[in-house]
């Protein structure tokens, strides 16, 4: 992280020492307390984990250049733990302890169970292990388990082969068999033709619906846009769609319900474009009319569950169109609050902006690190970030979201380049490379917009061709404060901590690196913004500002 890491260390130094667990650290003897901290050169304030990439299951990098926690203290051993998920054959204290070379007594004690206890399948079990210095890193040496080869197959049967019948009888038998096979094939052919004709005629009258027999499989429903012929066919189709929605834990709305909720999709209920505000059972909802295939978006939103991702509560299919029912975000899109094209009076303080950025980063980190396979949003921009009544951010519009998993764990490639100009990463535009670093680049653009109050297109119109070059002046300045006045949103009226703004600018600069491998991972960004938000709360000069924050924003 370069300058970013150094500046963060300077600002968050006190809070890090306050939260450092001396009792569990193998380096507690390196600290001497008496009003002053001594021997600071013996250990870092926070133990760096060099092997953080090894915790990413989707990372194909298997190199051993990054191993783990740096062994830089006085003590050469420490007690740590690992987490094991119990499975059949390894679901007791004894079997798990033998598998992982652990002490059964300690395993039973830390999990608060007797030594003879058994665990349920998939239950998380804490297993204490002893780590020691090996080279420059703390590690627990692995052990090899030799699996015996499978037993040899049983010998062939020793029974004698029955004598063959006379040749004449054999010839007649083959004739009978051949005649039977040909006759059966002819019958099957005739039956198949009849079934095909009946099915073909029926399929011309009814919409085609392809449904997986396994609810956990991919959800794909293809419906013809041709109007249903009569009321009975329409009811049958809605019943089948309702069964699909129930298998996905989604409510299947009738179109008439949405008409009532939106006053027949009147202009007074329209939020923006094809999104309408509705009232369903006394609660506000956002109803979006979708065009084209929305099955992937429905499938993804049905799988995820996170407070920083917009929640899909139900669906409706009518007249060849999908209608998606989302939770309602009372304060509308982020773009309505940071781009001051009118005198709407909408304003966000410095602390609110950092909180929103942290919410967005947390939602992206969930997609990148906690979905299997990892997914990316692929269309991150200010209009796709919604704010609820408490100005907490939620990611929306997952129409372009996709998996980053390629062949054999490598990066995915695509020739179909889609997205929003100004937010797309260089490697995606030039080579079609798809990875989580696409979202990191787009997040850097979004964070730049949040801090400056300007749209990304405004920067591309200037003499600089690369967004990172715009920030070079601030990053390369000795203190960076002079360049901030020209860069930061003037609506903040300089009510912001300059030192923290410089850290944010450094963070944006690293997110916009042309080399995707030089950009930070989303979990690193979350940690950085968390520290910035904590310090911003202490500063909080914006708490006494007289701006009025309306609570009736658009979706």
UniProtKB/TrEMBL annotation:
The chain crosses the membrane at residues 174-200. Residues 147-166 have a biased composition (Pro residues). It is a single-pass membrane protein. Its main location: membrane. Residues 142-166 are annotated as: Disordered. Pfam families: LysM1_NFP_LYK (PF23446), Pkinase (PF00069). GO terms for molecular function: ATP binding; protein kinase activity. It is found in: Cell membrane. Residues 238-533 form the Protein kinase domain. InterPro entries: Kinase-like_dom_sf, NFP_LYK_LysM1, Plant_RLK_LysM, Prot_kinase_dom. Keywords: ATP-binding, Cell membrane, Disulfide bond, Membrane, Nucleotide-binding, Signal, Transmembrane, Transmembrane helix. GO terms for biological process: innate immune response. GO terms for cellular component: plasma membrane. PANTHER family: LYSM DOMAIN RECEPTOR-LIKE KINASE 4, LYSM-DOMAIN RECEPTOR-LIKE KINASE-RELATED. This is Protein kinase domain-containing protein. It comes from Corchorus capsularis (Jute).
